[in-house]
Amino acid sequence: MSPPQPHPGAPARTREQVADLHFMDARYKLLDLAAFLDRLDRAAGGEDHRVRGLRAALPLLLEKDEGRVARILTLWSDPTAEPIAKADTKAASGVWPGLK
Amino acid sequence: MRYIEPHGHMVSRTTDDYQAMALAGCAAICEPAFWAGFDRKSADGFYDYFCQLTQIEPKRAAKYGLPHYSWLCINPKESEDMALAADVLALIPEFLKAPTVLGIGEIGLNKNTRNEMKVLEQHIGLAVKHDQMILVHTPHLEDKRKGTRLIMDALKANGVVKPERVIIDHVEEHTIHEVLDQGFWAGITLYPESKATPVRAIDMIESVSAQRVWLNSACDWGHSDPLSVPKAAQEMRRRGHSAAAIDRLVYGNPVKFLSQSPRFKDPAAQA
Fold first, then answer.
1. Is the ipTM of this complex over 0.90?
2. Taking the model in full, what pTM does it have?
């Protein structure tokens, strides 16, 4: 466990207090994710690029430093810098399709 | 508790939502122009929409004691059609005279295309020409980081736009720091799935100096919650934030930004 890194804008709190507030929420979300992966295993076809991105993000959850959300969002982001010529859809999928 | 809803698409909501927001402490609502869920076929459709934003919604909100303000533009999702965009931009100056219009918005990018960029630059030019504030929509999901950077580059390239008169909305953990570092205001949108939850929003608030940040629900015709701002305030209370800190974030900050328009009246000063 890393040493505490409180933000200056946050009231002081212990890890137990954080768990009291948010553990059950995180618990059910993790179980939902596990159930989603199980559901994929039971389905036919190849790996969807969105699911590939999700699997690529899982190791980032176990990194020690804060900033996991930003690192996951950056992993899923389009890394290019120039506008594209034309879009073939209005919608975003959640993971940049070019992610390997 | 009192709060401002600085970004709600009330044309898509029922009057029950107005009532629920008023009961939850909402003191004023601001409504940027947005995509209707389908592409409008002509500028006439936008003319009617701008009439709805500037004439109908203020009356509907007033029934619940809520001041209603609006922002005008053609949404980036409809910006691929450059001819339509030009026709709609030509309509906007007439509506800028309406007493409840605060500026140009929500402009920005959707899929980060060249045509979207051109229309964004035209909107920025329109705002500068008419000395209007700007409310920016940043792209969704995997397009957000790139689009946010392109938008900030376009705003800076204009050379006249004052960052403190621009709010860049829908920031998330990977964009909020860049937006604030460049002097813009940042908006955190509370969406159940695709943007930030109230819990993540308060994590972000605790990680930055929250002097130039507002929270909004961006409630519209999709999966969204018009009460998400007071729910985020509740999350702050659960974590031990003071009543003053909550009030500063959900009321004081939007009032501070919006009061740069002489048309916006602080509801507390009107009481």
1. yes
2. 0.97
Residues A75, A53 share a domain: yes
- Chain A interface includes B248 (CB < 8 A): no
Q: B66-107: per-residue pLDDT in tens?
A: 999 999 999 999 999 999 999 999 999 999 999 999 999 999
Q: By the CB < 8 Å criterion, does A74 face chain B?
A: yes
A53 and A73 assigned to the same domain: yes
Average pLDDT over residues B133-159: 97
DSSP one-letter code for B170? S
Specify if A61 maps to a domain: yes
Residue A88 belongs to a domain? no
CB-based contact, A42 to chain B, within 8 Å: no
CATH number at residue B257: 3.20.20.140
Instruction: Give me the percent of chain B exceeding a pLDDT of 70.
Output: 100
A54 touches chain B (CB under 8 A): no
Q: How many distinct structural domains can be found in chain A?
A: 2
My answer on whether A53 and A41 are in the same domain is no
H-assigned helices in chain B: 15-24, 43-51, 57-62, 82-95, 114-129, 144-158, 176-181, 198-207, 228-238, 243-247, 253-258, 267-270
Answer whether residue A73 is part of any domain.
yes
Query: Is there a contact between A84 and B205 if contact means CB atoms under 8 Å apart?
Result: no
Select from A66, A74, A77, A89 the residue whose CB has the most chain B CBs within 10 Å, as the one to mutate to test that interface: A77
For chain B, give percent helix, strand, coil, nearest 5. Answer: 50, 15, 35
Minimum Cα–Cα distance from B76: chain A residue:
A90
The model's pLDDT over B30-48, given as tens digits with 9 standing for 90+, comes to 999 999 999 999 999 999 9
Sequence-distant (6+) residues with CB within 8 A of B25 are B1, B2, B3, B230
By Cβ distance, the residue of A13, A22, A92 closest to B142 is A92
Cβ–Cβ < 8 Å for B212, B180: yes
pLDDT at A1 over 70: no
Expressed as residue numbers, the domain containing B43 is 3-270
Give B195: exposed, middle or buried? Use CB within 10 Å, 0-12, 13-18, 19+. Answer: buried
| Tally of domains in chain B | 1
Domain of residue A72, residue span? 49-79
